Amino acid sequence: xxxxxxxxxxxxxxxxxxxxxxxxxxxxxxxxxxxxxxxxxxxxxxxxxxxxxxxxxxxxxxxxxxxxxxxxxxxxxxxxxxxxxxxxxxxxxxxxxxxxxxxxxxxxxxxxxxxxxxxxxxxxxxxxxxxxxxxxxxxxxxxxxxxxxxxxxxxxxxxxxxxxxxxxxxxxxxxxxxxxxxxxxxxxxxxxxxxxxxxxxxxxxxxxxxxxxxxxxxxxxxxxxxxxxxxxxxxxxxxxxxxxxxxxxxxxxxxxxxxxxxxxxxxxxxxxxxxxxxxxxxxxxxxxxxxxxxxxxxxxxxxxxxxxxxxxxxxxxxxxxxxxxxxxxxxxxxxxxxxxxxxxxxxxxxxx
Amino acid sequence: xxxxxxxxxxxxxxxxxxxxxxxxxxxxxxxxxxxxxxxxxxxxxxxxxxxxxxxxxxxxxxxxxxxxxxxxxxxxxxxxxxxxxxxxxxxxxxxxxxxxxxxxxxxxxxxxxxxxxxxxxxxxxxxxxxxxxxxxxxxxxxxxxxxxxxxxxxxxxxxxxxxxxxxxxxxxxxxxxxxxxxxxxxxx
Lengths: 352, 188
Hints:
The complex is a heterodimer.
Chain A: E1 13-18, H1 34-50, E2 55-58, H2 71-81, E3 86-89, E4 92-93, H3 99-113, E5 119-122, H4 128-133, H5 140-156, E6 159-162, E7 170-174, E8 186-190, H6 194-202, E9 207-210, H7 216-232, E10 242-250, H8 254-273, H9 279-283, E11 293-295, H10 297-311, E12 315-319, H11 327-349
Parallel strand pairs in A: 1-2, 1-12, 2-3, 4-5, 5-8, 8-9, 9-10, 10-11, 10-12
Antiparallel strand pairs in A: 6-7
Chain B: E1 2-7, H1 14-29, E2 34-39, H2 58-69, E3 72-78, H3 86-94, E4 104-111, H4 119-130, E5 134-135, E6 140-143, E7 147-148, E8 151-152, H5 155-186
Parallel strand pairs in B: 1-2, 1-3, 3-4, 4-5, 4-6
Antiparallel strand pairs in B: 7-8
Helix pairs in contact in B: 1-5
């Protein structure tokens, strides 16, 4: 775990991620300007840093209702505005970018942040960016696998010799600057299903697993599949970190949390996915065994500890801001995390 | 309420004839309902390539988005080679897994032989159930002999189509009311 900057003795890491969505607040019907949204994301990261959270990440999506297409630029602003929190992407669409440029960007952010930067590489859930950036969607899988391999090779080797199908060959190429500690933690973004978890495991790559709702135990299968594949690939699963990421919202009571959060999720998903989030499913989100962390701070503590017991994961990453949640509510959530949730989680999961 | 009639084949005229009658009956009885007929023979729909339904362009995008916006869908389909036409199956493939959640779907079926009667029961309904549709369980099965020169000549078929229209609207209204009442109970 050391290799990835994670010390399990310090307990479960707690982070926040944003997809960088830029959606109207469904309660007021109003949408902030892109300028305000981007600046609020930077502000949000600063608050997370001040509250002692471990990790903050920003996503890349090239479509309507998103504002952080240039997520590395936003991350570099965050790098300068924060002091201790680790930074990453959630995720970087490596398929439609040049791994050399991606590595240069993240190594630079790492230098600005003083060695706090990580890359989470994903495949995109939308395909509009293939047209926009000049790639063929029929190469969806091959593009990702080839470019992800190259990205990891650049991380491992200071002088790279490489040839592939989707990019010009590299001959004795030095990709500079190098990050502060020589290498960056590079994770593979995985949806809830075991198929791509197995690929991550087999390659011995840390897994960042995103999930919507459902029973905690369903996602255990994905994590088990990941660890089994790692073992088959000749890696020790105990040395490979797993992060889980999903909806989070804390309020005084679970009922209040449902009330505050539901319209944002439902209307936001209608706009970005074409279908809302069924109320019945959302209502189940407060169940102690449901993977969504929605409820009172005490209920959320118990949920996260239960998830930790089942998954044995190293990092949990909360998505709180989806769907135009007003900034005051994000501030309130960070306050609840910093004052109540985080200390309890650390107390119960740290080994001392 | 939005209802979409989906005539599911590029071939022949019987399904379209039955759909035309059904849509006419629907409009006459329920003038307040927003009705759209999509005859797949009139659209250039591509095969599914796995993308989100909102990302298709042109005719394909029009068809997927119009279906997804509907409260109820009346599917009309012939039976080809003892199964669904590929054009109709492709529509299902273009849509998300839970595409028919909170939607009512009813069916009329035209076939050259009475031997095909159970095909919708055994091949169409499982797909609709998988996609979370609320189904009008009784479908209207229409045979070759019920048509003459693009007209339905069997009064029984016309009566059954009228009842299909009524059942579709009644189930849609009822389901919406039940769902709204349940959602209000959640109080969030």
